[in-house]
């Protein structure tokens, strides 16, 4: 028994030392919506309200300025100028040639009702969980013509109404120059941290419109997991899935 314990301690130390030797990692994610035929429900769970990194959201706004009907499926960084170090400031978005899950993303569309919402990635130097800033994530169609009061369990009615086209009596006229805020189909955050092991903390909400006059539903994905670098990892619930790979860079 003591030999087994010693072997386990040595193996744990070896894995930890290999992770700690790598201080920069590429995080690649593919988020897919799929047909949900289950009756599973989740209790109301608002998204965390702490600080997030807006890197991905800034890229989305640059690639698809408001009004944006849908977030582009693939969000990548730009190719740096010759002779420049694009790793001087991390995190940064992965470039097109740095994405490695293109074939897997295509296969995920083979799921029943499979639809890729987002394929992206970023390079970062992970910190310990208490210091790691999550990456803010948005994807999918703009549901801004609906008003959602708060996150609710699936199959629970929500206050949803179409935005009025004309001001009501006594109301100030709507400023046509002010773009309405986008209400993305999917929103949330993904935190990647390093503390002996790679740790992922994922909080995503997928909003679905059931049809004219039907309630807007929110389906939540909240998962924390310890990961091994280089491997494929899949997070899911009946309504969506997230394929993730974290690769050591140096």
Describe the model:
It is a single chain. It contains 3 helices and 10 strands, in the order H-E-H-E-E-H-E-E-E-E-E-E-E. The strands form 2 sheets. Strands 1, 2, 3, 4, 9 and 10 form a 6-stranded mixed sheet that branches. A hairpin with a 1-residue loop joins strand 6 and strand 7. The radius of gyration is 21 Å and the shape is globular. The two termini are 37 Å apart. About 12% of the residues have low confidence.
Amount of beta strand? 25-35%
Termini Cα gap: 37 Å
Main sheet attributes: strand count, strand direction, barrel closure: 6 strands, mixed
Query: Order of helices and strands, N to C?
Result: HEHEEHEEEEEEE
- Gyration radius (Cα, Å) is 21 Å
Mean pLDDT: 81
Q: Total helix count?
A: 3
Overall geometry comes to: globular
Please state the structural category.
alpha+beta
Residues in helices, as a percent range: 10-25%
Please count the beta strands (DSSP E, at least 2 residues each). 10
- pLDDT < 50 stretches: 8-20, 149-165
Task: Record keyword descriptors for this entry.
33% strand; globular; single chain; alpha+beta; 250 residues; 6-stranded mixed beta sheet; 14% helix; 10 strands; 4-stranded antiparallel beta sheet
SSE blueprint and pairings:
Layout: H1 2-21, E1 25-33, H2 55-63, E2 74-75, E3 92-93, H3 102-108, E4 115-124, E5 135-142, E6 184-195, E7 197-209, E8 216-227, E9 232-237, E10 240-248
Parallel strand pairs: 2-4
Antiparallel strand pairs: 1-4, 1-10, 3-4, 5-6, 6-7, 7-8, 9-10
Put the structure in a nutshell:
The chain has 250 residues and is an alpha+beta fold.
């Amino acid at each position: 028994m003591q030999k087994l314990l010693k072997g386990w301690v040595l193996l744990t130390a070896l894995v930890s030392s290999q992770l700690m030797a790598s201080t920069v990692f590429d995080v690649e994610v593919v988020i897919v919506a799929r047909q949900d035929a289950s009756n599973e429900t989740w209790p109301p769970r608002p998204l965390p309200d702490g600080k997030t990194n807006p890197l991905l959201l800034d890229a989305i706004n640059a690639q698809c300025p408001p009004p944006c009907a849908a977030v582009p499926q693939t969000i990548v960084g730009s190719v740096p100028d010759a002779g420049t170090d694009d790793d001087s400031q991390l995190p940064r978005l992965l470039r097109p040639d740095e994405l490695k899950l293109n074939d897997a993303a295509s296969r995920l569309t083979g799921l029943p009702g499979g639809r890729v919402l987002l394929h992206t990635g970023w390079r970062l130097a992970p910190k310990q969980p208490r210091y790691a800033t999550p990456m803010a994530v948005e994807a999918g169609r703009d549901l801004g013509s609906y008003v959602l009061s708060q996150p609710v369990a699936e199959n629970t009615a929500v206050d949803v109404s179409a935005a009025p086209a004309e001001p009501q009596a006594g109301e100030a006229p709507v400023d046509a120059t002010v773009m309405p805020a986008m209400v993305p189909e999917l929103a949330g955050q993904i935190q990647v941290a390093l503390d002996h092991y790679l740790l992922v903390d994922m909080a995503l909400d997928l909003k679905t419109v059931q049809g004219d006059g039907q309630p807007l539903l929110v389906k939540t994905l909240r998962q924390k997991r310890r990961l091994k670098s280089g491997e494929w990892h899949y997070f899911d619930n009946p309504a969506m899935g997230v394929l993730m790979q974290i690769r050591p860079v140096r």
